[in-house]
Design a protein that fits this description.
Elements lengths: L2 H17 L9 E2 L3 E5 L5 E5 L3 E2 L10 E2 L5 E2 L7 E4 L10 E3 L9 E3 L13 H18 L8 H7 L7 H12 L6 H9 L15 E2 L5 H22 L14 E5 L4 H16 L6 E6 L2 H9 L8 H11 L7 H8 L4 H15 L7 H13 L29 E10 L2 H4 L2 H6 L4 H10 L1 E7 L3 E4 L4 E4 L7 E2 L2 E2 L13 H8 L7 H12 L5 H10 L1 H4 L8 E4 L22 E6 L10
Parallel strand pairs: 11-12, 12-13
Antiparallel strand pairs: 1-4, 2-3, 5-6, 7-8, 7-9, 10-16, 13-14, 13-20, 14-15, 15-16, 17-18, 19-20
């Protein structure tokens, strides 16, 4: 790995851990950060940097170095808030965030903690407090005490700019008047900007395709009939539309590799006329990113244009700090990239901002921003906006795939086992056989799961549902649609795979190690447990099947009627992926 690659990898970890709320309950700490550099002659050497501690979820990191070079513990990061005085001048009272009275307006006693308005902003408050703690961790490092020559050798140049970037980013993310976050949230509730916030969404329960998709198929048939005649080099009149097959072009997963290779393959299919014969395109992982670009102002429905865009944008690592922090802290890209995260955290009190959110945001800074970083188009940020490119049937309908891992062992326990607090071998075996991945399809028209025979309009993704109806706020408005950056994070989140899949990836590498046979046998014995464990939490969206007992097929697991959220991940993370 090159020095730049290692620095980018470290930056990914640092930035991700700033906001990841939990990683199996562990707090990520970096003690004596080690930067690997290569000398001109290629001789590697290791240098030590100042100890850095970063908190994940409001708990202090273990140690840091203070100015006297002594190890001290970070102060407790329990967020205290105070109620603003009322008109009668009542004295402020302190209370814990979890015990805050409903709808009390609050402010922080610490000017470094961003404001939060009321209990409906719990998710925003948690995110803000974690961000502030992380920023303090980094800004507490005294670069000047290292000496210029030492700092230059130990640290990459961008490290010394982190405090300024994070301070600027925090300022924009505060909910104070005229801040970026305040502007985005006001716009999120404006029907003129987001017309669908006034629309009422319902869960569609049916085995049939939705009306919009059926209408699209009819429109697309005219184009595919003409395209097939051209491809076969026969007169169009000799082709009966009833004989024209419904063709889908499927793209595999593999992140940037799938994106780049898939674009080239699609371009070749487009040049020979085969692409125009397709009614659908479908993809997982990087192929979903390809479809996102194709149906955007950046790709312009031309694969050659996407290739040019990628040449200009993917030469820099997605996690290279100066690149993404610059875009997140200046106009117009800051609002363009951060709006979806702000809408999600402010609009859903239970929402979280995890590693999948971070990953999607980093992807967006590289893939959804044009070469000169100014001509950004807000219409590229919503999946439902892609309907405009399907209106006349001139393009195939894109399908974006993700999966949910259903592990029903708890549901299989009987009352006697619950009382005894144990699980029989029979129940374990049944759970092993019945654990499965549920397939979810995103299109510009609908989010759909065939297993449930149910779906919701794509413009309502991000809203909570109960008993088939969306839940509106006090002003009878719905939340804006979840942004494409977060969706890209979900579609490409192969890192959310099970521990069993992780081991299969590294097994060939460690196969030659001494004692591998014994270790391998031990791990294989626990494979039934490993296939149920996800070391990194998948991305979540509100569960639209909540409360629909008795209305969905009998095969629908009980958890679907109780869980507030659906945990979705890259479909490539399972062997059941039919596309890869």
């Amino acid at each position: 790995m090159t020095a730049g690659g290692l620095q980018a990898a470290l930056a990914t970890l640092i930035f991700a851990r700033l906001v990841e709320p939990g990683f199996d309950g562990l707090t990520f700490s970096i003690l004596r950060v080690m930067f690997l550099r290569y000398a001109r002659k290629g001789t590697p050497f290791v240098t030590l940097g100042t100890a850095i501690g970063i908190t994940l979820h409001g708990r202090p990191t273990v140690l840091r170095n203070d100015s006297s070079n002594n190890n001290t513990q970070w102060p407790e990061t329990r967020l205290l808030v105070t109620s603003r005085p009322n008109e009668a001048g009542q004295q402020r009272h302190e209370e814990k965030e979890t015990a805050r009275p409903a709808k009390d307006t609050i402010e922080s006693r610490d000017e470094d903690v961003p404001l939060s308005e009321d209990e409906d902003s719990a998710a925003w408050t948690n995110f803000s407090s974690r961000f502030v703690t992380a920023r303090k961790s980094i800004t507490s490092i005294h670069w000047s005490k290292l000496g210029d020559k030492i700092a230059d050798r130990i640290l990459p140049e961008w490290a010394q700019t982190l405090p300024d970037y994070l301070t600027k980013l925090q300022r924009e993310m505060e909910m104070g008047p005229d801040s970026l976050a305040d502007e985005v949230w006001r716009n999120a509730q404006d029907p003129d900007i987001h017309p669908n916030v006034t629309s009422n969404a319902r869960v569609r329960i049916s085995k049939d395709l939705c009306a919009d998709e059926l209408a699209f198929i009819a429109r697309r048939k005219r184009y595919t009939t003409q395209a097939l005649a051209r491809y076969l080099d026969i007169p169009e009149g000799d082709v009966d539309p009833l004989d024209v097959p419904t063709i889908a072009i499927c793209g595999s997963g593999g992140g940037l590799r799938a994106l780049v290779a898939g674009t080239s393959s699609y371009l070749s299919a487009q040049e020979v006329g085969l692409f125009d014969c397709a009614t659908y395109t479908a993809g997982v992982s990087g192929s979903c990113w390809l479809q996102t670009l194709y149906y955007s102002s950046l790709g312009g429905r031309r694969h050659d244009k996407i290739i040019q865009h990628l040449k200009h944008r993917i030469g820099v690592h997605i996690a290279y700090p100066p690149s993404f922090l610059e875009l997140l802290t200046r106009a117009p890209t800051n609002k363009y990239l951060l709006s979806g995260s702000i809408e999600k955290l402010k609009g859903d009190p239970k929402a979280d901002f995890g590693l999948v959110d971070v990953y999607g945001l980093l992807l967006a800074t590289r893939l959804l921003v044009p070469r000169y970083e100014l001509g950004v188009d807000d219409r590229d940020l919503k999946l439902s906006n892609q309907r405009a490119y399907l209106a006349n049937g001139e393009n195939p309908l894109p399908i974006y795939a993700a999966v949910r891992h259903e592990i029903p062992i708890e549901e299989q326990k009987n009352e006697d086992e619950e009382a005894k607090g144990k699980t029989t071998d029979a129940v374990k075996e049944k759970a092993k056989q019945e654990a499965w991945f549920q397939w979810f399809e995103f299109t510009p028209y609908e989010l759909w799961c065939e297993e449930f025979d149910a779906g919701i309009p794509s413009w309502s993704i991000g809203r909570h549902f109960f008993k088939g109806n969306n839940v509106l706020n006090a002003d009878s408005l719905g939340l804006p649609e979840l942004g494409i950056p977060f969706m890209m994070g979900i579609w490409g989140s192969a890192f959310c795979a099970t521990l069993a899949h992780y081991y299969k990836e590294v097994r060939p590498i460690i196969k030659g190690l001494a004692g591998f046979g014994g270790i391998d046998g031990l791990i294989e014995e626990r494979n039934d447990d490993l296939i149920k464990m996800h070391p990194i939490d998948p991305g979540v969206i509100p569960n639209y099947a909540l409360g629909l007992q008795g209305l969905l097929p009998a095969t629908c697991p009980e958890s679907m009627f109780k869980d507030d959220y659906l945990e979705l991940m890259d479909a490539v993370s399972t062997r059941f992926c039919v596309y890869s």
